[in-house]
Input
Amino acid sequence: MQFSLEQRTANLSVGEFADFTLGPHDTGGGPHGIWRAQLGQHWHNELRARAEYAGSADGTPRTVAQFEVPVEGRLVHRGWTFTLAGRIDQLVAGTLREIKTVTRPLPADEAALRAGYPGYFLQLAAYAVLQRTAGTPPARAELVFVETTTGLSQSVALTPFDEALVYHQLDAIVEFFQLRLRDTARRRSLTFHAAFSELRAGQENIQAELAAALGSTSLVFFEAPTGYGKTGCMLEFALGQLRSGRFGRLIWLTGKSTGQLQTIHTLQRMTAGAHLATWQVRNKGEHCVNHTFHCVRDACGFLKDCGERWPQSGLARFYLDEAQPHDLDTLRAAGREAHVCPYEITRAALAFNDVWIGDFNYVFAPDNRGLFFDQPGFDPRETLLVIDEAHNLPARVADAYSHTARVDDARALHAALGHEHAPAPLLLAIEEWARLLDTLAPTEMLEPAIEADVRGQTERLAEMVATQQLDYAMLGPHFSAQLWRFPAFAEFMAGTALKKLLWAPRAGELAFTCLDAAPVIGETLRGFGGAVLMSATLQPFANFSTACGVTDGAPVLAVTPWREGAYDVAVDVRVDTTFRQRAGHHATTARTVELMHAAAGRCLAIFFPSYAYAETVMRTLGGSGSALRAAVQPRLPDLAAQAAWVVESLKRTDALFLVLGSSFAESIDLLGGLVTHAMVVGPALPEVNAVQKARMAALAEAGRDEAFRRVYQVPGLQKVNQALGRLVRAPGQHAKVLLHCRRFADEGYASLLARDYRSGREITDDSDLRAWLRS
Output
């Protein structure tokens, strides 16, 4: 839908017009994919042939039938001019005929069809009104419902009341436009405070630099170290862009809930005394008010028929009243009282907010992006997209396009379908799928014959899931979700845009792994009017650009004079921490930890590539009779619990053993000023497995050294840079860092360290270490 609030005009397809709603709407509740569309096209073609040849005595087509007839016209309503366009399926002897495929059994009660598919009737009514407005009223208009599995059809005639509903729908769209005019006025009059009352050294010119970069290109890479104030600086810039009218919306993405909360807190502080409509989007599970989380519409009393309850629920206050609180507890309480899913409140209110804050998935994951992209009036070309912690984006998007299937799940699904008396063809197909998975032995790549079998079975199952009439309410959320994965499996197999790997990490388990999501990341980024990707560790920019599928990003590097000399770094060439050699150096590593603690006189941080490595050195310390109190980071579920552990451990232990790449190393900003000595035990290269080997093979043309750099060294050193950045977060803080592995002295590794962590000093023996610790 394209519209101009200034000109009071709107252009939209008849389908968009019919589907428009300001309240909850059925987003499908199940499988989507090309198979449903293909089957619908099959029945369209079948009914077209019947119409062409109906009444023909000699086998030649009739000439009175027209198909896919373009219909376009203008409707003026309450001062707005609407241009609607579409194609009616059939025009036969003055009768408009629209064909819709359904999975429910036919014939059905007409009232049930009207209640179940109101958008279909509204779409046909819009065609009829457009024809009538153009002076060519149809003699009749009818919907033809076709049952997908049998081809049985049922016709329902349009009534004058259906045509009257077209103007009711126009009222709803005009109401939406009036609210958007309100939102535009609010943004234009926005007042806000500067992010910082006093600028830190290096922040003086950042607003001008960001403006210049985004003025020259639509994509900016903003790199600034932890503690610089990226969030505040970027918010100040973004709010100015909203107020100027360059962008009509800000989408702020970050993969951590703590980052989202920090953004909201900063926004509230900067806009105190003003109003900026901001909505933090939490996941469906957090919204859910059922005793068990599930999203099977017919099985959830808060979802089923919630659209009918919405008009009298009073929940429109969440977008009509700008002062209405909408924290998660308020949403859950309101949804429970109105018997409407709280997530549907978020979906309905989101379009009227200036700032959307959420996870990467709402823009980049195929299963989640509909919440943003299907919002009425949403236009990415008028949106500023900000991605925080953007160094994680390529891996997160690749994960969103990856899947796993397990034989135990398939067997359980087969049993559940049998219990619910599912159609025999579906039961047989699931049984065959379970047998295929059961034959899989661990392998780094499937044989072509097995891959072809996977392709055929997933395609067949995807088509069945999309067309079979199943009682998902009785089947339950767990098994329904398993069935709905088959279209995703089949799309993975059929797709050609992404580099992918089909392999078996263990017996009976099939992994559909996306190796490189760059094409879809780049396509998405290019759709936005402006995008700023920011992090403390984006460099090397060439590699990051390639991983994001773009070539035209403008880098903005923050200046931080207060970090000059804050790090005293040495490279310990006494040890080799590669997987094959590290066992011979465990005693040296343990002894070095003790020497570091003795020099620090307080708790120090030791960063390891893995839990196993940290635990081995812990045992080595214990076996040597050391009195050092060390603690390995626990496997805790959330950042709050992790932060609490860090605070307590800093008081009670001598050394924190942390794992590079984990939330403890990359998400907890508590070490700055409290930890003055740290040690990095190796560069944390990714595990050598089938996925990394496949990525190496995909980069064979670049040469082995360059492939190794991209696949192993860049992500490994990025984890090191992330961890060390949290040791100095403010002026006056200092850190003494020992890079404990001779690989750090190699130029291939050293060049990937951030400038502050590069050192010419090497530790060749114990005396060197003691001298450096004393210096």
Remarks:
- The CA atoms of residues 662 and 719 lie 9 Å apart.
- The longest helix spans residues 160-188.
- DSSP finds 32 helices and 24 strands in the chain.
